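Input record (one chain):
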Amino acid sequence: MSIVDGVYSLYAHRAVRPAAAWDRSLARLALTGYPHPFWYRRNTSDIEIIHQVLVRQEYAAALDDLTAGASIVDCGANIGASAFFFLSRIPGCHVLAVEPDPDNEEVCRRNLLPFGDRAVVVRAAIWSRRQALRVAAQGAALPGGECALRVEP
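The corresponding structure, as predicted from the sequence alone:
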């Protein structure tokens, strides 16, 4: 089974489970071409993010503009898929991953830990001026809502 088949198999499995039985526990994938396993939460939108960023490699075009040792700021890092992608593909790059949601930040931190001091995860949000912000859910209580968050004053 290829990783794409595996991802879709996981996705299909999620779609048929009743909502009351959803298990959001952590699991990990060993992805071909990546140096470390990647953690995700079962029955969440995490698997779609993995497919988009790590399997389909939607950020691959950015690799042409980044050189070894680049510094990258990932605002709204979610579970760290983009940071994981760049850290795996660009030798010596450093990533600052900014994620305001505590649940996403915890998974992001776990995913970037193997990269040591090349990755720094900060629970924070980016705004146009200094002020207190809160994480507002846009359907986060619904399945797949883990990536439907925003910050607001």
